[in-house]
Amino acid sequence: MSRLYKKYKEEILTELKTRHPEKNVMSFPVLKKIVISMGLGDALKDKNALQEHSEELMLLSGQKPIVTRAKKAISNFKLREDQPVGLMVTLRGKRMYDFLDRFCHVVSPRIRDFRGFSDKCDGRGSYNFGLSDQQVFPEINLDKVKRQQGMNVTIVTSALNDADCVELLTLLAFPFKTAS
Question: Which fold has domain 3-171?
Answer without folding.
Answer: 50s Ribosomal Protein L5; Chain: A, (3.30.1440)
